[in-house]
Amino acid sequence: ILVATSCKEEQPPIDTQKMTKILTELHLAETYAQLTPIDKGGYLVNNTDTLLSLYAQIYKKHQIDSASLKEALKWYDLHPEQFDKVYENVLTALSILKVTGLDSAAKITDTTTLISDSALAIIDSNKMSQRFKNRLRRTDTL
Fold first, then answer.
1. Residue 34 to residue 83: CA distance in whole angstroms
2. Mean pLDDT, rounded, for 61-88
């Protein structure tokens, strides 16, 4: 008895480019919330209200919810090579944002400005332009 199996590669619930944008924005939201702590009787704590608001904006912008994000994260966890590619792109996008002057998350108040499509457009199949590679090398040696 022969069993036919599909050779079609399993696709992630959220494609890699969209997942890169989502995770990049979530990391920036986390940073922003940490940079804007709330004073609780002499103790500074993370600004969870702001963080939850930013998460809601990111979910709305990308037309997802927390359940679909969790599902995608579980899928990527089971596919570490694809997850590594996503995080390489996230780190590249964050580096580009740093180089282009958006290194202070405190300046960012709207999630639509957290990461621009033009910054992600520079990342094309894990390739950055030589100009940005050189700029990143210069800033890393400072």
1. 25
2. 95
